[in-house]
Write a structure and sequence with these properties.
The protein is of the alpha+beta class. Among the domains are: 53 residues, no CATH class; 267 residues, Distorted Sandwich (Beta-galactosidase, Chain A, domain 5), CATH 2.70.98. The chain has eleven helices and 49 strands. Strands 9, 10, 11, 12, 13, 16, 17, 21, 22, 27 and 41 form an eleven-stranded antiparallel sheet that branches. α5 runs parallel beside α6 and α7 packs parallel to α8. The radius of gyration is 28 Å and the shape is globular. The protein starts with a strand and ends with a strand. 49% of the residues are buried.
Length: 750
C-alpha cells in the first residue's frame, strides 16, 4: 500500500499488522502495568496509551512547561521527554523499550543524557555514561529546567549539564569551566549530548531525519533491513586539515583525480521529524560547532534505532613522525590539551503542519535573523557571468601568460549583453592580477599588463558601474603560490609540525600552501584599501570563506576556534566598510551575516547510498533573504536537470566565460575548464537571463514556506506570496492539482 503523509512524501509500508498488534497491546496495557521495555510491534503506541491512562511517563517526573510543551526528566540518566500539550505527542531522548539485542554499553549510550568517549594513558578508548559507571550527581532544579553536576568517580572526570526549556525549544549546555579531568589516566575524547533525542525504532514512526549534506538530504524512518554498516558523519565546516593525513588519490595517469570530494557541512544543523505524530525538532549546534560533527544514523547501523546528534570533539588523534625521514616510522597520538569551549545544542520543537523539513527551514531562518546571524539583502535578480583574465603555462624558462579575456574584452561582452537586453548582471573577474589567476596572495590593486594594466581595469570598472553591472574582483585569500612568491614565512603547519601542502596535480603549479589566518586578514585589509583607492569597491573573497583548520605557527598551536575568530573578524571588518561591497564563495554559516550574496550554492548532495531524498534545505532557509548563485551552468553534464534544480532552490544561474577558446588552457592549472568561449554561450546567457528574470519577478523578496515531494519525481515549492512552483523531473508528462506538467519542466502559478 502506498501512503502519502501531510508533507507529500510517500512511505511504502504495510502497517496493518502493526496497528492491529498495537490495538491489542493497548487494551492489555489499560488493564495492567506497562513493563519498562515492552516488546510489542507498535511500542510507541503502547507507551502513549499508558501515558494517556496514567497521566504521566514511566520513570520520568514532570519538570516544567511553556506555552506549547511539557518537559519531563529521569533523575537516574537525566533523560528527557518533551510532550506536545495540544496533541499529546512526544519526543524521547532515551529509549523506552529494548528489543533485547543490545549489550549494556549500548543501553548506556541509548539512555544517558551525556555520553563520553574517554582516552586512557595507553591511547585506548572507552565509553563513560550515566548507567554503567559509578556516577555522583548533584541536581539543582530551576524554574525552566535543571543543572546537574556529574562526576565519574573511577575515571575522575566531571562536567555540569544545564537544561532549560525556552519558548521555542530546549537548550542543553555544558560550560567549558565545568569540565574536569582530575586524574592522570583518563581524559575526554568526545562528548555527545542527548544523542537519542527524537529517536525511533526501525519503522515504528513515519518521518525522516535531516542530513546537512550539500544543500540537504533526508533519510526516511523506514526499516533499512540492515543494509548500511555506517551512517552519515560530517564535520561541521569541513575536514580539519591540521590533522589530516596524506591520502592516496585515485588518479588517472598520475595526474587527474577521478573521485570528487564530498560536500562540506556548511551549517551546524540536523533534525528529526515524526510526521505521523506531527512533531519534530531542529538541532542547532550553538557553541563548540567549530570542533563538532553531525552524526545521522539510520536503523541497522550498530543498533535498530534511528538517531541524529552532534558529537563534540575535545581531543583528536593525529600522526606524529618520529624523524624527518618519512620512511622511519611514526606514532599515532592524541592531543595533549583538549579544546576549550562551551558546548551547547538548541532543540527547536515543531508541531502540527510545521513538523516538517519546511518548518525546520523556516525556524532556522527566523533563528538566524533574530540572532543577527543573517541580514536581509537585496535579492533582485542578476545573471552571474564570470570572466577569466589570464593564466600561466610552462615555457622555456619559467612561465608565460595565457591571455583569455582582457579588460577590453570584458567591456565589449558586457556591452553586447546589455544591447541584447541582459541589463541585470553580476560579474566576478578572476585572474585579473599581475601574474595571472594563481599568482597568490594578492596584496594590492595591481592588474596584469596583458589584460590592460591598471588603467584598463579601472576603465572597465567605471564603465560597468555606469551601466549598472556589479563587477567584483576575485581574491583567493587562503593560498600562497611558492613558485611565484616567497612562502618561507606566514604559512601554516599541521599539528605534527609538518607544513601543509595543497596538491593540485596540475602541470604548472603543483603545490600551494595555506596562509595563516593572521596573514590572510592582514593582506585582505591591504587589498581592500588599495582597491577602494582605485575606485574598485567590490570584492569577491574565496578560500577563507570555506576552510577552517587547526594549525601551528612559530611554535604556537591555534585551534579551529581561533581560525574562525580571525576569519570572522577579518570578513566583518571588510563588510563594515561603507564603501566596500563584499560577496563570498560558498561561505560557512558563521559568515552569512557578512556577505551580500552566496556564490556556488550546492544543488546536490554527496550521493551517499543511505540518503533517500535530496532537498534544497539551505536554499529554503536563505531564499528571500540573500541572492544565491549556483555553480557554473557550462560545466554541467545534465543541464536540464540542473536548471530545474536552480528553479526549485531559488538559485540564480552562473556562467564562466572567456573571449579566447578554452583549448588555450590545456597546459595550465585551469585545464578543467573545457567549454567557456563567449560565442558559444552568448545565446544561452540571453535565454537564461530572460527566463530566470521572469521567474524571479514573481518571487523576489518572498521566502519559501513549503516544499513537497510527490511520487513520480514531482516537487511543489510554495512561497510566502502564495506563488507555487511545480517541477516535473520525470521523462513523462504528469498532471498535478489539475495542471499539466511536461517532461523535465516547471510551471509557476501565482
Amino acid at each position: 500500500m502506498v501512503r502519502k503523509n501531510c508533507c507529500g512524501i510517500s512511505f511504502r509500508k504495510n502497517r496493518i499488522l502493526t496497528k492491529l498488534c498495537g490495538a491489542l497491546l493497548t487494551a492489555a496495557l489499560l488493564a495492567s502495568t506497562l513493563p519498562a521495555f515492552p516488546g510489542s510491534l507498535d511500542r510507541r503506541a503502547a507507551a502513549l496509551s499508558q501515558v494517556q491512562a496514567a497521566g504521566s511517563f514511566p520513570d520520568h517526573t514532570y519538570l516544567t512547561e511553556n506555552n506549547g510543551y511539557k518537559l519531563y526528566v529521569n533523575e537516574e540518566d537525566l533523560s528527557l521527554v518533551v510532550e506536545d500539550k495540544t496533541t499529546g505527542a512526544f519526543l524521547e531522548s532515551a529509549i523506552s523499550y529494548d528489543d533485547g539485542k543490545n549489550n549494556p554499553i549500548w543501553l548506556g549510550a541509548m539512555r544517558s543524557a551525556v555520553v563520553l568517549t574517554m582516552i586512557n594513558k595507553n591511547d585506548d578508548t572507552k565509553q563513560a555514561d550515566l548507567l554503567n559507571d559509578a556516577v555522583t550527581k548533584q541536581i539543582t532544579y530551576t524554574d525552566n529546567g535543571f543543572s546537574a553536576k556529574i562526576y565519574w568517580n573511577v575515571y575522575q572526570l566531571g562536567l555540569t549539564l544545564n537544561v532549560s526549556l525556552t519558548e521555542d525549544g530546549l537548550v542543553a549546555n555544558i560550560p567549558e569551566d565545568s569540565i574536569r579531568e582530575d586524574g592522570d589516566q583518563y581524559f575526554i575524547g568526545t562528548i555527545r549530548i542527548y544523542p537519542f533525542m527524537g529517536h525511533s525504532y526501525l519503522d515504528d514512526k513515519e518521518g525522516y531525519m535531516l542530513v546537512p549534506d550539500g544543500n540537504g538530504a533526508l533519510i526516511y524512518l523506514n526499516d533499512k533491513e540492515g543494509r548500511f554498516a555506517s551512517g552519515f558523519s560530517g564535520t561541521i565546516y569541513g575536514t580539519d586539515i591540521g590533522f589530516e593525513e596524506s591520502k592516496v588519490e585515485t588518479l588517472l595517469w598520475d595526474k587527474y583525480n577521478t573521485i570528487s570530494d564530498p560536500n562540506q557541512v556548511l551549517a551546524p544543523i540536523y533534525g528529526i521529524a515524526h510526521v505521523d505524530d506531527e512533531m519534530a525538532f531542529l538541532g542547532i549546534v550553538e557553541d563548540g560547532q567549530e570542533r563538532a560533527a553531525i552524526e545521522v544514523m539510520p536503523n541497522g547501523v550498530s543498533v535498530d534505532y534511528n538517531r541524529a546528534y552532534a558529537r563534540f570533539v575535545l581531543r583528536k588523534l593525529y600522526t606524529q613522525p618520529t624523524s624527518n625521514n618519512s620512511t622511519s616510522g611514526s606514532l599515532h597520538i592524541y592531543e595533549a590539551d583538549r579544546s576549550h569551549s562551551d558546548l551547547q545544542v538548541r532543540f527547536l520543537f515543531l508541531s502540527g503542519k510545521d513538523a516538517s523539513y519546511a518548518g525546520m527551514a523556516a525556524s532556522y531562518r527566523d533563528y538566524l535573523l533574530k540572532n543577527g546571524l543573517l541580514s536581509k539583502q537585496d535579492t533582485s535578480y542578476r545573471t552571474r557571468v564570470d570572466f577569466l583574465g589570464t593564466e600561466r603555462q610552462n615555457w622555456v624558462l619559467g612561465t608565460q601568460a595565457v591571455v583569455m579575456t582582457t579588460a577590453k574584452d570584458v567591456q565589449e561582452i558586457l556591452g553586447d549583453l546589455n544591447t541584447a537586453g541582459v541589463t541585470d548582471l553580476l560579474s566576478v573577474y578572476k585572474g585579473w592580477q599581475s601574474g595571472g589567476l594563481y599568482d597568490l596572495p594578492l596584496k594590492s590593486y595591481d592588474a596584469d599588463r596583458n589584460i590592460g594594466g591598471n588603467s584598463g581595469l579601472t576603465n572597465l570598472i567605471k564603465k560597468a558601474e555606469e551601466t549598472g553591472v556589479d563587477l567584483y574582483l576575485y581574491d583567493n585569500a587562503l593560498l600562497i603560490n611558492p613558485e611565484e612568491q616567497n612562502a618561507t614565512f606566514n604559512v601554516i603547519k599541521q599539528v605534527n609540525k609538518k607544513r601543509y601542502e595543497y596538491k593540485t596535480y596540475a602541470d604548472v603549479y603543483e603545490t600551494f600552501y595555506y596562509l595563516t589566518p593572521m596573514r590572510s586578514a592582514e593582506l585582505l585589509a591591504k587589498l581592500a584599501k588599495s582597491c577602494i583607492a582605485k575606485g574598485a569597491n567590490k570584492l569577491c573573497v574565496a578560500g577563507v570563506s570555506e576552510k577552517l583548520f587547526t594549525f601551528t605557527y612559530q611554535s604556537s598551536k591555534y585551534t579551529r576556534f581561533d581560525s574562525a575568530k580571525m576569519y570572522g573578524d577579518a570578513i566583518a571588518d571588510l563588510n563594515a566598510q561603507a564603501d566596500l561591497d563584499l560577496i563570498l564563495e560558498q561561505p560557512f554559516a558563521y559568515l552569512w551575516k557578512d556577505t551580500s550574496a552566496f556564490l556556488d550554492m550546492p544543488l546536490y548532495t554527496s550521493n551517499y547510498i543511505l540518503e533517500d531524498e535530496s532537498i534544497p534545505f539551505l536554499s529554503m532557509v536563505l531564499a528571500g533573504t540573500m541572492p544565491m548563485y549556483a555553480d557554473y551552468v557550462n560545466f554541467e553534464a545534465n543541464e536540464k536537470e540542473f536548471c530545474l534544480k536552480m528553479i526549485e532552490s531559488g538559485c540564480f544561474p552562473s556562467f564562466y566565460i572567456t573571449k579566447a577558446d578554452s583549448s588555450e588552457l590545456i597546459y595550465t592549472n585551469s585545464r578543467d575548464i573545457y567549454s567557456s568561449r563567449y560565442e558559444t554561450y552568448r545565446d544561452r546567457i540571453i535565454s537564461y537571463s530572460e527566463e530566470y528574470a521572469e521567474f524571479a519577478k514573481k518571487v523576489t523578496g518572498a521566502v519559501i514556506t513549503d516544499h513537497k515531494i510527490l511520487e513520480g519525481d514531482i516537487r511543489i515549492v510554495t512561497y510566502s506570496n502564495n506563488v507555487k512552483v511545480y517541477l516535473n523531473y520525470s521523462e513523462e508528462t504528469k498532471t498535478v492539482d489539475g495542471k499539466t506538467l511536461n517532461a523535465m519542466s516547471y510551471l509557476v502559478v501565482s
